[in-house]
Amino acid sequence: MTGTETETETGRVLVVDDDETVRDVVRRYLEAGGFRVEVAGNGTECLQLFEQSRPDLVVLDVMMPGINGLEVCRRMRQSSQIPVVLLTALGEEEDRIAGLRLGADDYVTKPFSPRELALRVASVLRRARMPRPEPSAGELADGGLRLHLGARKATLDGVELPLTTREFDLLAFFLDHPGTAFSRADLLEKVWGWKFGDQSTVTVHVRRLREKIEAEPAKPVRVATVWGVGYRYDPVRS
What are the protein's GO molecular function terms (predicted)? Predict the structure, then answer.
């Protein structure tokens, strides 16, 4: 197999972290998985390499001196929907929420298993390359909430909702399966396409989704918590 074929099959990954040891370990694990890897030690270098080589995915540390990872993510999102996996400190939930709001696809908390990160990168890329099945009607609706699947546009009472890719996919899944309770593991597999991973990713996305579709996010009507199970979408159909 030629180098070009390998690159096409696995993908090109840009790893960004100000810790040289982290960069080296992640690079070696990804290369062992067949990825072509570039590394950057800060946000400025990341943006330069991003413009020059347009990788298939970016592994991006949030806490970096100078231009931090969240700002780097925001700038990349202005011109690209490239998959982004954030590296965040354990317990820094606000960073994870901010990153998901900017359109990051996933996050991994430090300290992390390099092997799991490599598997997560492969999973995110595989999911990003999958064609998205859409119901023949091209639209899902519940009362004033409407999802136009072909255009990937969501509106609530005629006002467009600023949903990220993951939020849109999660809401589409909920609308397509009303009244059914799903565990976080179920949602991680059915919406994200992952059989493993940090299930708190689902919790954060549900919270963000509620903030956008619920009149009172702290007292959700549509996306209900099923204690001991997970979440259920309850149609309002008003």
Answer: phosphorelay response regulator activity; transcription cis-regulatory region binding
Question: Which has more confidence, 94 or 230?
Answer: 230
| Strands, E assignment, the chain | 12-16, 36-40, 57-61, 84-89, 106-110, 139-142, 145-148, 153-156, 159-160, 181-183, 223-226, 230-233
Spatial separation of the C-alpha atoms in residues 98 and 134, rounded to whole Å: 29
CATH of segment(s) 139-233: 1.10.10.10
Polymer length in residues for the chain: 238
CA 226 – CA 219 distance, rounded (Å): 13
Instruction: Map out the domains of the chain as residue ranges.
Output: 3-129, 139-233
* 62-73: average pLDDT: 91
> What is residue 197's predicted lDDT score, i.e. its pLDDT?
65
Helix axes 200-213, 93-101, angle to 10 degrees: 60
Higher pLDDT, 91 or 21: 21
Sorted by sequence, the CB contacts under 8 Å of residue 35 that are 6+ apart come out as: 10, 11, 12, 13, 118, 121
Place of tokens 């989704």: 209
- Fold match between 3-129 and 139-233? no
pLDDT the model gives residue 115: 86
3-129: CATH class: alpha beta
Angstrom CA distances, 211 to 6, 17, 55, 169, 216, stand at 42, 31, 32, 16, 8
Cα dihedral across residues 79, 161, 158, 181: positive or negative: positive
Instruction: Please tell me the predicted confidence (pLDDT) of residue 134.
Output: 47
User: What is the C-alpha separation between 125 and 104, in angstroms, rounded?
Assistant: 13
